[in-house]
Specification:
Length: about 450
């Protein structure tokens, strides 16, 4: 739909969004400058008044701003643009958090938004909190929706299934239905929305399997289905998502192995599969994931040796593989990961020595090898130990010992070589914790595409 653009009100989140998704802000101001736009169409204004009256009692909308799109008198949370018909049209509605209109207790999902033909984005954050409501797209068909983005986040009273009719929103690029109480299966029809760039259904109560049709979303950059109750295996077709940069399937009940097809995702920077029931093996072409910076896969019954190929993923910054039954030795190839800042291998059955090269990992900041069967002399000098301090945890490896030359003052949960367990020189295991702030920072630095999703991981509401 050709829009000559004039934006009259920008909320902070609008700006954030424009920064994140500049494509949504394809500004064309030429015509609007030539001919100042006049009013809204009465029918569109009436639809808007009805939506506002049903949603928010912050103001008597109809009276306080009879021309809601007019420059200078516009409502908070609304954005209008003039189109070629020389009328002003609502292009964005934003509810739930000040300065945007707050939602009243009786607010329910306003399917009338679909009757606003120029509406491009709609946001409902922390809006449906009291009155149970469901998603409904029944107004589709009455007009063509221009919706490119719908975001419903943190709405505890939003229940029921995702209606299959959502597939009528053909222009959707960003669909965020996170931190609600949605139930039922992911409708297969959602995967016919082939303009989708970001799909986030995280933190709901969705069940069933991940449909293989997910592979149809060829434009997908971010896929987040984390924190649901999804079962079955990761579909092989995920490998068709050639533009994917972020894949988060953590905290479901997924079974089977990571499909080999995943090796085709050569733009993938963030992959999180923690807290599922995935078992070995790793994809043969794991080393092809050359963009991978974050591989987060704690808490799965993998029960295989660690693949040496992780050492080829030179962009890795975080590698988390705790609590997953890994056995055998830690591959020395891991010492090639020059950008690695976090390595979590605790609570496995890893044996043998700590690779000597670990002591010269230049960026390592957080290293947890606790509760394994590691043995031998810890290959770290005192400057390394000083640098990591409380972020180093080697406790719970009875066979490990620390060279007496570096042992003094260090509390990393390892005894000094040659001393008796019972003697006074044993250094007690330290119950240290990862400083959560540091983890947040490292997540935060990784963003441009997935700020919202990551934010939810870190700060689940
Ligand atoms: C802006 O709109 C005018 C008139 O519709 C069109 O001729 C021009 O190509 C557009 N410019 C851009 C950058 O889209
Ligand atoms: C919807 O779009 C189709 C195809 O662009 C068009 O043929 C139809 O007239 C539109 N319907 C309405 C109600 O605008
Ligand atoms: C490692 O990180 C630095 C700084 O962030 C970056 O410039 C460099 O490209 C990274 N190296 C690799 C192999 O990704
Ligand atoms: C270790 O303990 C044994 C018996 O308790 C003792 O005989 C031996 O001298 C101790 N060795 C060291 C190095 O403390
Ligand atoms: C290492 O992992 C253990 C077990 O999960 C945890 O209790 C400990 O706090 C961790 N140590 C550090 C330094 O993160």
């Amino acid at each position: 739909m050709p829009l000559n653009t004039m934006c009259y009100s920008f909320s902070l989140s609008t700006l954030t969004l424009l920064l994140l998704f500049p494509s949504l802000a394809s500004l064309n101001t030429t015509n609007a400058k030539k001919q100042p736009p006049n009013n809204m169409l009465p029918s569109e204004a009436e639809t808007l008044f009805k939506i506002m009256e049903s949603m928010s009692s912050d103001q008597v909308w109809r009276i306080s701003h009879p021309n809601p799109c007019q420059p200078g008198s516009s409502w908070p949370g609304i954005e209008c643009k003039s189109a070629q018909d020389n009328h002003l049209h609502v292009t964005r509605l934003d509810f739930g958090t000040p300065p945007n209109p707050t939602c009243k207790n009786k607010a329910t999902f306003p399917s009338q938004i679909l009757a606003l033909p120029y509406l491009q984005s709609a946001f409902f954050f922390n809006c449906f909190t009291h009155t149970k409501t469901t998603l409904s797209f029944s107004k589709i068909g009455e007009s063509n929706s221009s919706l490119q983005q719908i975001s419903l986040r943190s709405n505890p009273a939003l229940t029921g299934p995702i209606p299959p009719q959502i597939s009528s929103l053909k222009s959707l690029q960003i669909l965020t239905l996170s931190q609600n109480r949605l139930t039922g299966q992911i409708p297969v029809t959602i995967f016919s929305l082939n303009s989708l760039v970001h799909l986030d259904l995280s933190y709901n109560m969705l069940t069933g399997t991940i449909p293989s049709q997910v592979g149809n979303l060829k434009n997908l950059v971010g896929l987040d289905l984390s924190y649901n109750s999804l079962t079955g295996s990761i579909p092989v077709t995920v490998g068709q998502l050639g533009l994917l940069q972020k894949l988060d399937l953590s905290s479901n009940s997924l079974t089977g192995a990571i499909p080999d097809s995943i090796e085709k995702l050569n733009l993938l920077a963030f992959m999180a599969l923690s807290n599922n029931k995935l078992r070995g093996h790793f994809p043969r072409g794991l080393a092809k994931l050359q963009s991978l910076q974050y591989f987060i896969m704690d808490d799965n019954p993998m029960n295989v040796p660690l693949p040496v190929e992780f050492g080829d993923l030179v962009k890795l910054q975080e590698l988390r593989l705790a609590n997953s039954g890994y056995s055998g030795t830690i591959p020395p190839s891991f010492s090639q990961l020059m950008n690695l800042s976090t390595l979590s291998l605790q609570n496995n059955r890893l044996s043998g020595e700590i690779p000597a090269g670990f002591g010269s990992l230049p960026r390592i900041y957080h290293l947890n090898l606790s509760r394994n069967l590691l043995s031998g002399v810890v290959p770290f000098d005192s400057s390394f130990l000083n640098r990591l301090r409380r972020n180093l945890d080697l406790s719970g490896n009875p066979g490990l010992c620390l060279s007496p030359s570096v042992a003094y003052r260090m509390k990393i949960g390892v005894s000094v070589c040659g001393s008796n367990k019972t003697s006074g020189s044993v250094i007690q295991p330290l119950k240290s914790q990862a400083p959560s702030g540091l983890i947040s920072i490292s997540f935060f630095l990784f963003v441009p595409w997935g700020l919202l999703g990551l934010h939810q991981i870190l700060f689940p509401v």
